[in-house]
Amino acid sequence: MADVNRGNRPLSPHIQIYRPQLTSASSIFVRITAIVCFVLSFFFVWWLLAASTSAEAFALIDGLIRSWLGDLAMFGLTWALFYNMLGRLRHVLWDLGYFLEVEISEKLGIGMFVGATVLALLTVVLV
User: How far apart are CA 9 and CA 109, in angstroms?
Assistant: First the structure.
C-alpha cells in the first residue's frame, strides 16, 4: 500500500469559505428546476387519470388547477421548464466548446433567467 501522508494535504474548499458564483448558482438552479418539473408533473398525470375515471374526480383536480394557486403553480412550472431548457442548451454549447469564458458564462446565466421569464410571460399572455 502506498505511504500517504494525509496530514499535509490541502483541504478542498469548504462551503463556508467558498464564494458562490453566478455560473454555479445557475447550474444548481437548473437541477432544482428539473426536480420541480418532475414533482409538478404528477398533477398532470393526476389530471389525466381523473379525466379517464369520473366527472367528480376530474372536477376536483380541474378546480384545483384552475384556482389561483393552480395558476401560480402552472406559471412556476412553465418558468421552470423554460429555465431548465435554456440551462440544458447552455450546457450543450459548453460541451461543444463555446462560451467558456467567465464573462460570457455569467451573461448566459443572467440571460437564462431573463429568457425564462420572458418566455413564461409570453406563454401566459398568448395561451
Answer: 34
